[in-house]
Amino acid sequence: MTAPRTRRALLTGWGRTAPTAADVVHAVHPSLVDAAMSAAVAAVAARTGRGLVARGMGRSYGDAAQNAGGTVVDATWLDDIRTVDLATGRISVGAGVSLQTLMERFVPLGWFVPVTPGTRLVSVGGAIAADIHGKNHHVDGSFCSHVLSMTLVTPTGTHVVGPDADPALFWATAGGMGLTGIVTEATLQMIPVETSYMLVDTERATDLDDVMDKMLTGDDAYRYSVAWIDCQSTGSRLGRSVLTRGDHARLADLPHRLATDPDRARAFVPRQLARVPLTPPGGLLNPLTVGAFNEFWFRKAPKRQLGKPHHMTGFFHPLDGVGEWNRLYGGRGFLQYQFVVPDAAGETVRRIIERLTEVRLASFLAVLKRFGPGDPGPLSFPMPGWTLALDLPVGHDGLDRLLDDLDEEVLAAGGRIYLAKDSRLAPDTFRAMYPGVDRFLEVRSRVDPDGALRSDLGRRIGLCSDAGAPTPRPTTKKRKTR
Amino acid sequence: MIDATGRPQSVLVLGGASEIAQAIVAGLVPGRCRTVILAGRPSERLDAAADAARAAGADMVETVAFDTTDLAGNPAVVEDVFTRFGDVDLVLAAAGALGDQAELESDPQAAAELITTNFTGLAAALLAAARCMRAQGYGRIVVISSVAGDRPRKANYIYGSTKSGLDAFAQGLGDSLVGSGVGVTVVRPGFVVGRMTEGMDPAPFSTTPEAVAEAVVKGISSGADVVYAPPVLRWVFAVMKQLPRAVWRRMPG
Questions:
Q1: Mean predicted lDDT score pLDDT of chain A
Q2: Is residue A196 a contact partner of residue A266, using CB atoms and an 8 Å limit?
Q3: Buried-state track A385-400, b at ≥16 Cβ within 10 A, e below 16
Q4: Closest CB from A332, A400, A460 relative to B1
Q5: By CA distance, what is A396's nearest residue in B?
């Protein structure tokens, strides 16, 4: 098999930070993934290569889908739909198919993706690698709980794995950030829906206690729940929020004009309303503009409104209406800080919001949600508790040290940081946050003994290395305290 | 790797005993920089710099014998570091000597050696570093130039010209690396009170190695092309460069 042709390209994640150059393979067919894998493994064995990793839609915020000096397999071309069973909702698709494509094709047929994040512009392969979660995590769990099987190309061969077929490899791949192999195909269990509309309850919460209380007592009654938090309000209004919760609307729930027109009620036509055409050098998001936006967003929300039909696109993916909105943060880019802490650590959430409001860091988006139980993935992010996600522009003096401090708070509370969003976590903190890492490395050394699967994220947090020494093995090294 | 906030995890210092380099390393280690390779002539000073890096919290600190005037040998030293230690996020070129202008004027061979130390040898090592980093797909090269290179003065034009050359070289290198993931930062300190300038009268806007280091660490994290230390010198020298030659010639010291 000859090595596929590549092109050298500078890559970043969605946050547009820390660009690195890699040789990108245009993988239009699974055989090209095999060829790229063989070539990369041979080069690593000869100590001339820097390994490979798959890349989907590039929606991870940090360096997960980058591989400096090595190979990056662009898997978005593996975008075919292989088998469909409309009676059961089981579908097999190429790993490069986006959730948007699945919604466009299957919502009109009465099937919706089991889990969707805040953007539908992610690939199925990426959704598995990050074991993504959505607003329904407290009820339905994360993405990989709905994956029935997948085809994984590894340095030691191609495996078809599932919860019952080599579960150790399947779960290591769930949230494994691409470091166990390249997913080329997956079989998913979709969920039935009658329409493309949601019935949504919206209410404002006056402060953090209020919103947390509302979520603790009321979330169980809803399939989907999320709170948007205004991270610029301080004092007695700290944590004022807009809480939106709902479920899929049935045909009978919709207004007459839709209820009598099932085709229209099931239509799913995503539209991009606008696009950010260029990167404003200093960015447009600063405490002033974000403050104004937050005020507007809070005022725009009704104080309390029940059972209002909203189309799926607006409910799940409001930002997908604006193309390349990540440019708004300016040339230096931005990062997202997302952590989870156990239910009992609500105070940690408050302290972290307080510390971020103190330094007046503009956070355009701050989203609070409650997770249900996690899955067996050793690097899978969700665990029962509170998860908060904030977007922060890079460039603020002291942001690096502040976030290091917040890491310590999260760790002390027994929580962790989401690797799909991360772009700055330290290796020892990562290990302490993910006690399953040794289990992960054991599986990885079975399928990738020479450590040919590498990414910038993996290098940064100590999961891969390019030194003359072989790849890191499970260790019991104690974490240094600072 | 270099993280989203611009913090490197490993550094190779060319001229590891340099005071400015030591201050920069001291500024980088508490961030993320746990691997520190100090290249320089074997000496107590170099060992002391290594001890200081360890004391600051670096896990992996090594010294490597490196002499900028060894034109045949020094590219290999740089390449060997990249092979042995894996990724090098940051290469800091801090080797250099000031020399005594009057002595150098009367000893052309010594002057040529100074030029080799400050410019020729370093340029060879930096070309090797740039090649390794290009293959690595990312990295940052920081070159300690000087405001003395902005416009050579009669009182120190031999030293000044080495910095002019190095500065021009670094700018060109930076441009040649655009798109490779590798960036170059040129640092132009003013008069730095320290070992190199012992016994000299400080010039206006004089600074310290620590202050230079602070500006450099900030410049590294933002990926700056040029860093002046103190920053005001950017504007001072923008004016100085426009002075008529007859006036510039009369600059004291």
A1: 92
A2: yes
A3: bbbbbbbbbbbeeebb
A4: A460
A5: B5
Which domains can be identified in chain B, with CATH numbers? 10-248 (3.40.50.720)
A456 and chain B: CB distance < 8 Å anywhere? yes
Residue B226 C-alpha, separation from nearest chain A C-alpha, in angstroms:
16
What does the domain layout of chain A look like in residue ranges? 78-192, 197-430
For B132, nearest residue in chain A (alpha carbons): A69
**Which residue of A11, A12, A14, A17 to mutate against B (max B Cβ within 10 Å)?**
A17
Q: How far apart are CA A40 and CA A44, in angstroms?
A: 6
Multiple choice CATH, A78-192, 3.40.120.10, 3.30.465.10, 3.40.50.2300, 3.90.226.10: 3.30.465.10
What's the pLDDT tens digit per position in A462-476? Answer: 999 876 533 344 444
* Residue matched to tokens 């860091």: A361
**Least CB–CB distance from A21: residue in B1, B180, B223:** B180
Cα distance between residue A48 and residue A44, in whole Å: 6
- Stated length of chain B: 253
- Shortest CB distance from B4 goes to which of A20, A50, A394? A394
Comparing CA positions, the residue from A331, A456, A58, A459 lying closest to residue B223 is A331
Q: What ipTM score was computed for the predicted complex, to two decimals?
A: 0.94
From the number of C-beta atoms within 10 Å of its C-beta (0-12, 13-18, 19+), residue A257 rates as exposed
For A74-103, what is each residue's pLDDT tens digit?
999 999 999 999 999 999 999 999 999 999
Residue B159 known to be catalytic: yes
Q: Which residue, A435, A420, A414, is CA-closest to A346?
A: A414
CB neighbours of A369 closer than 8 A, spacing ≥ 6? A135, A137, A138, A225, A226, A227, A386, A387
Torsion of CA A276, A280, A282, A286, to 10 degrees: -40
Which of A:54-83 have CB within 8 Å of B? 62-63, 67-70
Structure tokens at B177: 């690396």
CATH no. of A197-430: 3.40.462
* pTM attached to this predicted model: 0.94
Read off the amino acid at residue A479. Answer: R
- How large a percentage of chain A has pLDDT more than 70? 96
Cβ-Cβ contacts under 8 Å, B4 against chain A: 15, 17-18, 62-63, 333, 335, 394, 423-424
CB A189 within 8 A of CB A149: no
A19 vs B: CB within 8 A: yes
A460 to chain B: which residues are within 8 Å by CB? 1, 3, 9
Q: What does residue A260 show for φ and ψ, rounded to 5 degrees?
A: -95, 5
Q: What values do phi and psi take at A47, rounded to 5?
A: 60, 30
pLDDT digits (tens, 9 = 90+) for B142-157: 999 999 999 989 999 9
